[in-house]
Amino acid sequence: xxxxxxxxxxxxxxxxxxxxxxxxxxxxxxxxxxxxxxxxxxxxxxxxxxxxxxxxxxxxxxxxxxxxxxxxxxxxxxxxxxxxxxxxxxxxxxxxxxxxxxxxxxxxxxxxxxxxxxxxxxxxxxxxxxxxxxxxxxxxxxxxxxxxxxxxxxxxxxxxxxxxxxxxxxxxxxxxxxxxxxxxxxxxxxxxxxxxxxxxxxxxxxxxxxxxxxxxxxxxxxxxxxxxxxxxxxxxxxxxxxxxxxxxxxxxxxxxxxxxxxxxxxxxxxxxxxxxxxxxxxxxxxxxxxxxxxxxxxxxxxxxxxxxxxxxxxxxxxxxxxxxxxxxxxxx
Length: 332
Ligand code: TRP
Ligand code: SF4
Hints:
Elements: E1 4-10, H1 18-33, E2 37-43, H2 45-52, H3 59-73, E3 81-84, H4 89-100, H5 104-109, H6 111-122, H7 130-133, H8 135-144, E4 150-152, H9 158-174, E5 184-186, H10 215-222, H11 246-253, H12 256-267, H13 273-297, H14 300-328
Parallel strand pairs: 1-2, 2-3, 4-5
Helix pairs in contact: 3-13, 3-14, 4-8, 4-14, 8-9, 10-13, 11-13
The structure holds tryptophan and iron/sulfur cluster (SF4).
């Protein structure tokens, strides 16, 4: 059976948190290990410049940290191509060519882009840059450079992907070819983890637990988790239904036996919230033990070498694609 090509990327925002792991990385690893796909996973550093063009000082270290998170989580450079977007300038050239045939109002109307602009506003960026308007076209180039057919992403990326299909279709129509596939999103309904304060988990709220956190840091965060707001005193019976953050985490990380025990002890006031959250921290630590050990074993130098090799492999394919695109467009 001919394997389908799968492409996905993440912006290097810094050390990833366990929400990224449960929602994205874990799924990538399952897809990689299914051996059903020819996988391309990359770090979208140009995309982070679409909103954070002035914050370049930490970019290099963010790239190293995210690569460590990728590798420790189980992405395997022998099975998947793992690379840095900006190391493949062919992607930029394909982006430029696709931009020529993409109507401006496709980009302007993209609701995902509108969310991005709103997000940027919250972090103090008030203008829409040319680069940010090009976000979905660059994303399309990321995918089409490798002739990606399947793109595992969150629901929030749906509109971007729709535009990628439209751009592929338009290219094929204009040049009377079927060269580009129309990439399809692969949505996974993974439970999204809340931050310890019951808001969306995000490093900017300091409500996250890093994949790379120490055991102590993890427990310090779980101790902050919101519990049952109606449980005033230790001697009050709690309600796992009302428990906003801690219990939902048990449901994700603990086995049925423990979940049932917590529920029973909580609702009969045999268990206090502080102890309950410390125990949860330990369960999370056990869950991430191997990943964290693996992560600590990588030096920066090793990680950069792995990335360099991935870049070289990916670039061979990117060059091939660009050559064919130019041929189709009668540019070479
Ligand atoms: N926009 C994606 C996100 O924010 C990241 C991304 C960039 C991407 N290029 C991509 C995802 C190509 C899939 C394919 O999550
Ligand atoms: Fe939540 Fe545990 Fe407290 Fe019950 S005992 S409210 S489950 S933290």
